[in-house]
UniProtKB/TrEMBL annotation:
This is AAA domain-containing protein. Coiled coil: none annotated. InterPro entries: AAA_14, P-loop_NTPase. SUPFAM superfamilies: P-loop containing nucleoside triphosphate hydrolases. It comes from the Bacteria. Residues 31-155 form the AAA domain. It holds the Pfam family AAA_14.
Amino acid sequence: MDSLFLKQERMLVQTSTDIIRELMNKIHWNNRLIAIRGSRGVGKTTLMLQYIKLNYPPGSRIALYCTLDSIYFSNHTLLELAEKFYLQGGKHLFLDEVHKYPTWSKEMKEIYDLYPSLQVVFSGSSLLNILNADADLSRRCLAYNMYGLSFREYLMFYKNIRFPVMTLPEVLENAGSICQDVNAQCRPVQMFNEYLHEGYYPFFTGNREDYYMNIENVVNFILEQEMPLLCGVDPAYIRKLKALLGVLASSVPYEVDITKLAGMIGLTRNSVITYLQNLNRAELLTLLYSDLTSVKKMQKPDKIYLQNPNLLYAVASAPVQIGTVRETFAVNQLSVNHEVEYGKAQGDFVVDHKYIFEVGGADKTFKQIADLPDSFILADNIEFATGKKLPLWIVGMVY
């Protein structure tokens, strides 16, 4: 136990609290059982350590952070840790990487039942399915999803430029004044281009080549370790999954032909659909459907995107088309708090069954969405809004 506290103190010393993610203010930290899910590298560990550093005095032993892939758990169980921590006066237990501990859900339920005054916050992969875990935690656990940096957060993290979070209706109704505020503080087009290449994950250190290598490491970790562990994927098929991701990265937004895709990588049609859904849950892909209310159409997506533009640049084997990057960005940012559907006949995307968006360059016209109510153009390479033609970067303010 002392070794865990010592490790925590070392990690807290290295944790900066200069910049705090917006999720910090959304979590109901008083709940007895809290889950924070997200892809590897988006900042879950940092968030928990920042909360401890901000809310408990140095050297306090009422809060403890530990990661469940620690060597400590090679000869101790999670239940033993909780009991010892509780008996020594512990009140707040922060557990990282719970998906690496095989019986985490069963022991978590037992901890919840045995120690009603002990609060547990845990993090895990975006593939972590709390609702279908071995023990029923869904009624007990308050779950939150953590994503990579929005364009707004990128400006805060890397440029020290701060803007408040805005709702989508606020952005659409007040685009003119928002653009004026942003342009008064920075050159958004230049910074937006930087964001598309290197702004989504909070671990860019100034070298783009190293950054893309780290993204590839994240992808390999998800495919080689998390998907076999959490999705039951046969390790023998990992190479085919990498091939599938490579095909999609070189051709997204992919107009889906499952049979053709299956033939290209040597898998059955049903296997491809299952793997696409797993890659979507792993936050490596985003699947769009033209009708989310149709169970039949939920089986096969209408369009496939990589999850974010940085991932697209990192794994694509061919030159990336700017049109693909623009659409990937729009879907990525809008999907965090909204329901996004493939527009098919009307516009590129339909958001919340109401707003229609067409994405393009500065010269994009309203030809394809003329006279449609609640329709907007999201145009790249413009600084200011003109009527319902808005800068593409402005939807990066919604989280």
